[in-house]
Amino acid sequence: MHWPSLLSLSLTIVAFTSLVAQPIYIGSQRELFVDDYLVESLTDVDLRLHAPRKAPRAESPLPVRHAMTVIKDGDYYRAYYREADPSYKGPIHSGHPGETLCYAESLDGHNWRLPNLGLHEVGGTIENNAILTNMPPYLHNFMPFLDTRPGVDPEERYKAVAGYPGKGDKRGTTMEGIGLYGFVSPDGINWTMQGEIIPYQPEWRHAFDSANVAFWSEAENKYVCYFRTWTPGTRLRTVARSTSSDFIEWSEPVEMAPNLPGEHLYTTMTHPYVRAPHIYIALPTRFVPGEKDSADEVRKNTTDVLFMSSRAGSNHYDRLFTEAFIRPGLDSKQWTNRANFVANNVLQTSPTELSIYHRSGDRYVIRTDGFISVHAGAKAGSLTTKPLVFTGEMLELNYSTSANGFVQVELIDLEDNVIATSKRITGDAIDEPVEWINLIDILDFSDQPVRLRFSMKEADLYAYRFYDE
Questions:
Q1: What is the mean predicted confidence (pLDDT) over 218-223?
Q2: Using CA atoms, how far apart are residues 85 and 305, in angstroms rounded to an integer?
Q3: CB distance 94 to 138 below 8 Å
Q4: Domain over 67-350 is classified CATH 3.60.21.10
Q5: To 5 degrees, how large is the angle CA 220–CA 222–CA 226?
C-alpha cells in the first residue's frame, strides 16, 4: 500500500483548511436565517419557524381555485387562476378542453375585482374575466411571471410556462409535444405560445403534471424553472431544475431531491424572495396519501404546506424545518384532498407584512422577512456568523424584543478579537440602523473578512443587511 508523504499530507490539510475558511461575500444583500449558510455557531439560542396567520376574510376575496399565481406589477396586484367553463359537457380530466385561465386584480392585495374583459365566450357569454380558453392541456397549469430581465422586449414583458403530458407511465416515450411550453405577453392578458422549451425525457415515469414555475433570476442572470418530476422506484412526487439565458434553450434538468423518505411534494412554488432575490423561497404542498377505502374524507388523502429555501445557483433545497408551515386548521374542508395549495409568489403588501394567498380564498400574513428567526429566551445567548465580506457604511437589523430584551452586535476579526460593539437595541423594527458605541467608521472594514456576533435576550432576529446611507 502506498502511503502519502508527511509533506504531501500537510499540504493537503493546509489546502483543505484554506478552502473551509474562505470568507463568504455578501456585499450589501439582505441575509435571512432561512438556512444555515452563514451560521457558524449558536450558543443558548435557536432557530424558530414562524407560522403565518390568516388575515380577516376580504369582502371580495380571490375565488377558491387551483394553480394560482399572484404578481405585483406597479400599483396593481394581478392574480391568475384555473377555472372551468360550465357549458363544457365533455369528459372531465386533467387538461380537458373546458379549462380556462382567469384574471383578477387588486390595488391593496386584499380585496379583488374580476374585470369584465369580454375576450372569450364562457358559459354562453363574453361578460367574464377569462383570458385564455380551449387550449388543452396548457390551461391546466398555466403559471405566468413578470420578466424583470434588463432590456426585455416589451412584447415579452410577461412570460409563462405550461404543459401537461397526460396520465400514465411515460417511460420510453419519445414523442414531441408533451413537454413544457413557453408563452409570452406584453400585458399579462394577451398571450402567444412560443413552443416547447423543456422536452419530456424518455427516462421519466411522469413529469410536468402540476404547477411548474419559472422566473428571471437577477442573482444568476438567467431564467430558472422548477418543475414536477417523480422519483424512480418509490414514485414520489418531487422536483427538478433547469436554466436558460434566453427562455428558449434550456439546460439539462437536474433533480433537486428535496423529499424526505416516503414524502410527496405536490408543488414547489419556488421564487426569489422580494427583499433578497438571491434567496429563493419555496412553499410546497405536501401530499399525504391516506386509506383509499376509508369512508372518512380526512383519512383518504390530506395536504399541508411546507417551507423550504434555496440559494441562487444551488441544486438543492434547504429544509431547516420539516414540519408544516401552514396546517389545514379548524375548517373541516381543509382536511380533504387537494385542499391546501398556495399561490406562487409571497408578496409584500405593506412595509411590515408579507402576504401568502391560499386556494381557499384566504390571505395569510407574516412579518416582513419573518419566516425563520434566531430566538433567545430569558437566558441571554448569541449567534456567530461564518467569516464574511460586506460592503457599505451602515448595518440594519430586522428584530423584535420584549421590554426586558435586547439585541447587540459585535464586529469581530478572524482571530475573534472584537473590532466594534453596537449599542443594545430594545424594541421592534423591520429596518433598524445599528449605532456603534465606539463610533467606528464601518467603511474601514468593508471588503475585509470579518464575523458578526449577535448577542440576544428575549429577542428574535429575522434579517440583517449592510448598506450605504
A1: 98
A2: 29
A3: no
A4: no
A5: 90
